[in-house]
Amino acid sequence: MNEPLSLETIATQLESENSRDRMLALASLRQVSPIEAVPLIKKVLNDPNLPIRSMAVFALGIKPTEECYPILVELLKSDPDYGIRADAAGALGYLEDIRAFEPLVRAFYEDTDWLVRFSAAVSLGNLKDIRAHDALMQALDSKEIVIQQAAIAALGEIKDKDAIDAILRFAQSEDWLVRQRLSEALGNLPSSKSIAALKYLAKDNHPQVKKAAEFSLRRLSEAETL
Questions:
Q1: End-to-end Cα distance, the chain
Q2: For residue 32, which of 78, 177, 192, 219 sits 20 to 30 Å off, Cα-Cα?
């Protein structure tokens, strides 16, 4: 097994002209504490290589320090690359910092790129804040199926029982991933309507939908016996 790289070696490699060296150095920060990693991650936030920038933004979400939140909010707000804005939205979800609610909602409503709006919807679910109801309900009507998927999943994550009727219409969606997300979400939304829908979805032709529905039914049944 290779010995982990020293901080000095990682710092030197992050300044290499070879993008592969910089990528490997960034990956090596997985073994480094957040307080030591973040200053090094910041070195490549403006890297000319887009995949490296993307990886650095993601790293800020899993190496949380007080510096990470404002950096990610600014990237979400103003970075010219939609992929980086989407990465920033996703990283804010990993932080699970409730302060990210407003920036994420703003990105969902105002950003023109669907990928950013998708990432914002997913992260609103990660925050588990019921205030996301209005934005997620709007996301259900998106023309982008992946945004519908994200909204259904997020409404389940925030345990929004008021959304049950709205998401049940997706039980017959032609997209099996939509039906799977619905099956998973209903497991967080105990009600007679949820149970009836899950019994229907448990007979779905797609094995992943069937499996998710059966699992959610067990969860709801176990919760009732507690």
A1: 47
A2: 78
